[in-house]
Specification:
The structure holds two protein chains of two kinds.
Chain A lengths: L1 H15 L38 E4 L1 H7 L5 H10 L2 E4 L2 H12 L7 E6 L6 H14 L3 E5 L3 H5 L5 E2 L7 E2 L1 H14 L1 H7 L7 E2 L5 E2 L5 H10 L4 H17 L5 E5 L26 H9 L7 E6 L14 H13 L3 E4 L5 H13 L8 H11 L3 H8 L4
Parallel strand pairs in A: 3-10, 3-11, 4-9, 9-10
Antiparallel strand pairs in A: 1-2, 5-6, 7-8
Chain B lengths: L1 H16 L22 H9 L1 H8 L18 H10 L5 H25 L12 H12 L3 E8 L2 E8 L2 H17 L7 H13 L3 H16 L10
Antiparallel strand pairs in B: 1-2
Helix pairs in contact in B: 5-8, 6-7, 6-8, 7-8, 7-9
InterPro entries (chain B): Ribosomal_uS7, Ribosomal_uS7_dom, Ribosomal_uS7_dom_sf
Keywords (chain B): Ribonucleoprotein, Ribosomal protein
Pfam families (chain B): Ribosomal_S7
């Protein structure tokens, strides 16, 4: 049965799917005004091995849409520096090169970013989101899963599935964010629902309605926001399988879904496992192998779960259940800065007037104190000038 | 460890205060031990003046303290200020507050930098350390009032003070004024505001200094009680 569906999928996809090939386009002569640590290129698809250890700037309109869901420190940095500059690093360039070469008729590939805390996993994701937006993917970006489970504003029993718990407020917020970052994709791709969704006796979403209407309904009707997320992911999976669009699932802190406990309480005031929260099954199904024309980029982090804190490696952090769900996946390590990257980032801080007079000895000291860890370096540079 | 703490808290303090018995604690090191010179540039300066070096060459040296470091980020005045912020020996917290303060100063100044037209930008000082030094210097008072009783009446007599005391007052005023705000705002935020204001010769700390000077001026008539 499985092989039959798979062959059906591939036949469907072959008709429309085109494999993109990297063209070795000749680079323009670099501007003399641009300092050595920057690149004038702002299209992430064009960034390749030559651009490593240099900084590229994300355009301000995309920064504005991403701003609300970036980490606190990154948001602060963007406000202070008046731009969002990201160091081009190996993991993101590697994933982009894989995405360019992927055979999209096959079932989706899963990439897992892992690494120690503060190594730049979330920041690497920003570049991939930008890539997705530029390449007209439908980007399902879930920023830091733990915010749903750790600080639940309101947990209510789901009206659609009585044994599960909904988090309507976070869900509405997320739908707004998804609408914001996929503004262009939603208007251009013309995606339609394929089946009828009955929310209550009066509220029905008919088949053939556009996805933006579905999202709008979720934002308006707070109560069914989680159900809308479920429907949206299903529809996107179906649309991608039918080669109408391509979907990029980006989830930060994926191992929160496979953890054993959350901070959400049920009606008996007991903590519930993530399986009992309605969005968990949705997003677990979004990384399943049964669809194509997409990719899933996930990160695993020690901070994202409560019970596993001993190692940074994905096999341990995902647990047996998560590993079996995701297998096979491609683990990609995000490491601390190399020496060149370290120098570049200090130069960038100097350019943005964050630090100024630090001698070579001081740089050496910073290097040793921070162990070239991006977050540590940022924290150490805060009081200095 | 328990006994040691008990000794420090109960016995040691009483011993130190009890000067009538003429019992006093001395340093572990005799007075001929010189203080260590831990800054690298100071050491190099020492090598250039050979006479001083000869003086030090055969004298024993005290071991360096834990907060003495040759790092270029170390600064004597900032170290002192950290100690004044510190409460109950929580130096980690004090250092964190000061780091956040400097960060806030930088952010505020950078905002100011980007909001001014490009031709005036060069005049803006972005270095928090320079701003801090300026603030401390601006807040330093010259005179203070001391209560002296003559003929059964206590007079507020203006007297000059030494540099250390003046510096301490200026730094302590900055901290106290920032703490006055209460818990509504973070200390690091208020401290940043106060320091920036003081560096511009404005704000509440500067006002406090001027008030003190005014009072000293008013009590000028009692000045001779200092020596009479």
């Amino acid at each position: 049965m499985m092989s039959y569906t798979y062959s059906l999928f591939s036949r469907m996809c072959l008709r429309n799917g085109r494999r993109t090939i990297i063209t070795a386009a000749t680079k323009d002569v670099p501007d003399t005004n641009i300092p050595w640590f920057r690149i004038s290129e702002s299209n992430p698809a064009e960034l390749d091995e030559n651009c490593l250890t240099r900084i590229y700037t994300i355009p301000s309109d995309i920064t504005a849409s991403l701003m609300s869901n970036m980490t606190l420190e990154l948001r602060k940095q963007t406000e202070v520096f008046r731009e969002l500059g990201i160091l081009v690093r190996r993991p993101s360039v590697e994933i982009i090169s894989y995405l360019e070469q992927t055979d999209f008729t096959k079932s989706i590939n899963k990439y897992i970013l892992y690494g120690i805390q503060g190594a730049g996993k979330t920041t690497s994701l920003l570049q991939l989101i930008h890539y997705g937006i530029v390449k007209r993917y439908f980007v399902l970006h879930l920023p830091w899963v733990q915010t749903w489970f750790r600080y639940p504003r309101d947990a209510v029993v789901s009206p659609l599935e009585p044994d599960k718990i909904d988090l309507p407020e976070s869900a509405t917020k997320w739908l707004k964010y998804i609408k914001e970052i996929n503004k262009v994709a939603l208007s251009q791709l013309d995606l339609k629902t394929t089946k009828e969704y009955t929310w209550s006796q009066r509220e029905i979403t008919k088949s053939g309605e556009s996805l933006s209407n579905l999202i709008e309904f979720g934002i308006q009707r707070n109560k069914f926001a989680c159900g809308v997320i479920n429907a949206l992911v299903d529809e996107l999976k179906m649309a991608s399988t039918a080669a109408k669009c391509r979907t990029l699932v980006i989830i930060d802190g994926f191992n929160a879904f496979t953890s054993s406990i959350t901070h959400v309480k049920d009606e008996n005031h007991a903590y519930v496992p993530p399986e009992r929260i309605s969005i968990t099954s949705t997003f677990l199904s979004s990384v399943d192998y049964n669809w194509c024309n997409g990719a899933a980029i996930l990160t695993v982090d020690k901070k994202a779960n409560k019970d596993r804190k001993d190692s940074d490696y994905p096999t341990y952090l995902l647990g047996k259940k998560g590993f079996e769900l995701l297998d096979p996946f491609l683990p990609i390590c995000v490491e601390n800065y190399s020496l060149d990257e370290f120098k570049t980032i200090l130069e960038y801080y100097k350019d943005r007037k964050w630090i100024k007079n630090i001698s070579d000895k001081g740089q050496r000291e910073l290097e040793l104190l921070s162990n070239k860890n991006p977050y540590q370096l940022w924290a150490l540079c805060k009081p200095l000038y | 460890m328990f006994i040691g703490r008990k000794f420090n808290s109960l016995i040691l303090s009483s011993l130190r205060c009890n000067l009538e018995n003429s019992f006093q604690f001395y340093s572990v090191f005799p007075p001929n031990y010189i203080k260590p010179i831990y800054k690298k540039d100071e050491q190099e300066a020492l090598y250039q003046e050979e006479t001083e070096l000869k003086q030090f060459s055969h004298s024993p040296v005290q071991p360096a303290k834990t907060n003495n470091t040759c790092s270029e980020f170390h600064d004597e005045l900032i170290r002192k200020f950290t100690n004044y912020i510190m409460r109950k020996g929580d130096k980690k917290m004090a250092r964190k507050i000061l780091d956040e303060t400097f960060e806030n100063i930088k952010i505020k100044k950078l905002n100011e930098y980007y909001n001014t037209p490009p031709e005036y930008r060069e005049n803006i000082i972005l270095d928090p350390k320079v701003i801090f030094y300026q603030a401390v210097e601006n807040c330093t008072p010259v005179l203070e009032l001391q209560k002296i009783s003559r003929g059964g009446i206590a007079y507020q007599v203006p007297i000059p003070m030494n540099e250390n005391r003046a510096q301490f007052l200026s730094m302590n005023w900055i901290i106290r004024t920032a703490q006055n705000k209460g818990n509504a705002e973070k200390l690091s935020d208020v401290l940043a505001k106060e320091i920036i204001d003081a560096a511009k010769n404005q704000g509440r700390v500067i006002k406090k200094k001027y008030d003190l000077h005014k009072q000293c001026e008013a009590n000028r008539a009692y000045a001779h009680y200092r020596w009479l």
